[in-house]
């Protein structure tokens, strides 16, 4: 059972997350031949203040 974990900064729409789930699922089906029903995708919405880039939070950087 392929299991993909995706970490992204918070702020994506429900439609964008749906697209990520669909495309990652399809990529795993094609790459490893897993049945689509066996693929799991977990999106982690990370608060911008909890994501560091070059020693500064993404929130401070205006991301």
UniProtKB/TrEMBL annotation:
Keyword hit for Isomerase: yes
Class of this enzyme: isomerase
EC number: 5.3.2.-
Keywords: Isomerase
Domain spans labelled 4-oxalocrotonate tautomerase-like: 2-58
One Pfam family matching this protein: Tautomerase
InterPro entries: 4-OT, 4-OT-like_dom, Tautomerase/MIF_sf
NCBIfam families: PRK02220.1, taut
Protein family: Belongs to the 4-oxalocrotonate tautomerase family.
The protein's name: Tautomerase
